[in-house]
Structure formats: structure tokens, C-alpha cells
Write a structure and sequence with these properties.
With about 240 residues, the protein is mainly alpha-helical. Helices cover about 40% and strands about 0% of the residues. About 5% of the residues are buried.
Length: about 240
């Protein structure tokens, strides 16, 4: 074997040996662990309804929520991410009382997508998608013999009077709140049950309040005081 062959053989050995050791080190590394010398990412903090989930599970759940509402992370989170915000508290309540507290009639689980469908505030658009500009008359979702009892249940559950949805001059007139009521019945209350299989009603969510989330003690952003009468707000100077 001449000198050039020996040099080539030594070069191949010098290249192969580190590769073998690197492959062996990778094989010993546990799945899901960061490479040697790299710090693992911190586990999520301030979990209240997702307790027991690891970081990857929490991230997966957050991605599902953001897709269902059509929003980004900063819709609920601020820096630092574990800090409480009003929307995080709403999300916890929705997850605890609705997503985990309800089932479809076929026994399948409820998710954010079932109600939101890509909208952070689904009632602003969905109830009117197929009815705006169309004349509606007569009963739509209730048989005649159930109307009186249903109306009494509605007013009690929402803490309102008949005029909340109906016009005083003609109860048969179409109103936006009638449309919302039909939407809530056909899309939610008729198709959902409690975990034990019993039927749900308006009171399961409203509990005497027309807007069930509005009365809850969530923190609100501080409102700037209104300017005193006769003292208009100071105008901003250019580049100020």
C-alpha cells in the first residue's frame, strides 16, 4: 500500500469516527427532549382549566381555540403570556361551563368551533345570514301548543319582559331578537345536552340575564374620565 492510499484511509477514518459517535448520542437521546446542552422550553404557567397538560398539549389546544375564533394569540394574551386578562377569564368560563359542561345529543364532545365557526362574536353575524331582507311570518320553530309555555320560560331565563323581543303593536312583527332566539334554539339548545344526557334550556346559560357574560365580575379596562363640561380635550400637536 503506497503512501497516498494510507493518507486516504486515515482521512476516511477521521471522518467516520465522529459521525458514529454523533449517531450513538442521538440514539440515546429520549424522544421529545431537547438536544444535549440545550435548555428545555419552560412549562406553561397559571393553568386553571387545562391543568395536567404539558406544553405541547397546551399549544395544540390554543391553536384549536384561535382557529375556531379566527384570532391570533394576542386576542387573549399579553406579555407575559401567563398574565391574566379579561378574555382569558371568559375563555376559562366557556371551557368549564360550556365546552366541558355540555354534550351533543349523539354523545360527542362540544368544541369552540361548534358555536364560533371562525368568529370571535358569533351572534353578530350568524343569526342573520339567511333571514336578512326576507319577510317572515307565523311560527317558525315552535308548535302552537308550546308557544305560551316557551315564552314564559324565555322571559324568566333572560330576566326580561315580552317587549324585549316583540313589538308592542304587533307580536307577530319580525325583530332581530326573534331571529337570535330562533338561532339559539335550532343551533344550540335543541342539539345539546348536559353530560348526563338531560335536556338543556335557556336558563342553563342565561340564569336570569339577557347577556349571560355581561354580569360576571371580569376585570374591565379602565375608562378615561370624560372631559369636564366646557373643557374640550386638548388637541395633539403634530408629531406629538
Amino acid at each position: 500500500m503506497n503512501k497516498s492510499h494510507i493518507v486516504k484511509l486515515l482521512s476516511l477514518i477521521l471522518i467516520a469516527v465522529p459521525a458514529v459517535f454523533f449517531s450513538a448520542a442521538q440514539a440515546q437521546q429520549q424522544p421529545g427532549q431537547p438536544p444535549a446542552g440545550q435548555q428545555p422550553p419552560p412549562e406553561p404557567k397559571n393553568l386553571q382549566v387545562l391543568k395536567g397538560m404539558n406544553r405541547q398539549q397546551v399549544i395544540q389546544e390554543m391553536r384549536a381555540w384561535s382557529a375556531a375564533l379566527g384570532v391570533e394569540c394576542n386576542f387573549c394574551h399579553q406579555n407575559p403570556f401567563e398574565a391574566d386578562t379579561p378574555r382569558k377569564q371568559v375563555a376559562r368560563l366557556m371551557q368549564r361551563d360550556y365546552v366541558s359542561g355540555l354534550k351533543h345529543k349523539d354523545g360527542s364532545a362540544v368544541s369552540c368551533q361548534d358555536c364560533h365557526r371562525g368568529e370571535p362574536n358569533p351572534l353578530r353575524t350568524q343569526p342573520y345570514a339567511s333571514v336578512m331582507g326576507k319577510a317572515v311570518s307565523g311560527l317558525q320553530v315552535l308548535p302552537k301548543e308550546r308557544v305560551q309555555g316557551a315564552m314564559q320560560a324565555f322571559t324568566k331565563a333572560l330576566g326580561v319582559k315580552c317587549e324585549y323581543c316583540h313589538t308592542e303593536t304587533d307580536f307577530g312583527d319580525e325583530t332581530p331578537r326573534k331571529q337570535i332566539t330562533r338561532f339559539m334554539m335550532t343551533e344550540f339548545s335543541r342539539g345539546l345536552t348536559r353530560p348526563d344526557g338531560t335536556a338543556i334550556g335557556c336558563n342553563d346559560c342565561h340564569q336570569g340575564h339577557a347577556k349571560p357574560l355581561s354580569h360576571l365580575p371580569f376585570p374591565h379596562r379602565e375608562q378615561r374620565p370624560a372631559p369636564a363640561p366646557g373643557n374640550p380635550p386638548a388637541e395633539k400637536k403634530p408629531n406629538q
